[in-house]
Amino acid sequence: MLPVRGRDGRAARAARILGTRTAWTPVGDGEFFCPGCGGDRNYQRLTGRRRLTLLGVPVLPRGTAGPVVECAACGHHFGTEVLDHPTTRRFSVMLRDAVHTVALAVLAAGGTSSRTALETAAATVRAAGFAECTEDQLAALVDALAADTGRYFEQPCGAGLTIELHESLDPLAPHLAPAGRESLLLQAARIALADGPYTPAERDALATVGAALTICSDDVTRLLAAARTPS
Questions:
Q1: What is the mean pLDDT of residues 31-36?
Q2: For residues 23 and 28, which has the higher predicted lDDT (pLDDT)?
Q3: Would you place residue 145 in the very low, low, confident or very high pLDDT band (cuts 50, 70, 90)?
Q4: 59, 84, 109: which is the final residue of a domain?
Q5: Residue 34: which domain range?
Q6: Does residue 149 form part of some domain?
Q7: Distance between CA atoms of residues 133 and 115, nearest Å
Q8: 68 and 128 fall within a common domain
Q9: How far apart, in whole angstroms, are the C-alpha atoms of residue 13 and residue 18?
Q10: In whole angstroms, what is the distance from residue 17 CA to residue 57 CA?
Q11: Domain Co-chaperone DjlA N-terminal, which positions (predicted)?
Q12: In whole angstroms, what is the distance from residue 111 CA to residue 117 CA?
């Protein structure tokens, strides 16, 4: 190999003489979704202090570094914003709970007198992860929520319904792809359609679901029409 000459050679020699080193200190740990690994992994949250090195020996402080998140599996460092992304397990729970809340909202708007609507809602909730959900349980929950005027609805789409849906869907929506948000709205629409055409109250509830999922009103209208069309 030919020796390194010129400016590059001088830079390489200088880097061997003078450099910087970061000493990392763990300040927390937990589980996160690692973008590098593509799955749930353990992590350490690190803060660092930089030092100027002379011939590899730290001699002068050069300020702080981080904080960063270090994956215990791949060792890569990421910005702390990666902790805002739910783990796979947490995401599954959020999605399951969202489906349950949406089903209750649609049933509350349309009433629980239709066995077909209850069966469709219960099947949707079971598919989302509540394996033991029954029609009678959903009906009882809707009745209990309707009686709890401090939280739920004196009107079909009152402030209580809007709050409940936003509490469940707002944290989830940023982590769902557009197709996933649309799928959740379509599931709600099929529950509403199980016993016939949309009622005005059901349309209001579905519009609230769409808004909480950050689906624009034109797309909500399109999706509700698509759900009404037999496949």
A1: 96
A2: 28
A3: confident
A4: 84
A5: 20-84
A6: yes
A7: 15
A8: no
A9: 9
A10: 10
A11: 99-222
A12: 9
pLDDT at 64 over 80: no
Q: Please tell me whether residues 159 and 95 are part of one structural domain.
A: yes
Specify whether the CB–CB gap between 208 and 157 falls below 8 A: yes
| pLDDT at residue 8 is higher than 70 | no
99 with 162, same domain? yes
Q: Is residue 30 part of a domain?
A: yes
53 and 143 belong to one structural domain: no
Residues 123 and 53 in one domain: no
How far, in Å, CA of 71 to CA of 77, rounded? 7
What dihedral do alpha carbons 94, 96, 101, 107 form, nearest 10°? 160
| Residue predicted with more confidence, 215 or 161 | 215
| Residue 165 exposed, middle or buried by CB count within 10 Å (0-12, 13-18, 19+) | buried
Q: Is residue 6 part of a domain?
A: no
* Of residues 125, 128, 167, the one with CA closest to residue 142: 125
Instruction: Say if residue 92 is in the same domain as residue 52.
Output: no
Please tell me the predicted confidence (pLDDT) of residue 55. Answer: 67
> What pLDDT, on the 0 to 100 scale, is given for residue 16?
65
CA pair distance 208, 157, nearest whole angstrom: 8
Q: Token digits for 110?
A: 């349309």
Do the domain assignments include residue 123? yes
Of 35, 68, 84, which closes a domain?
Answer: 84
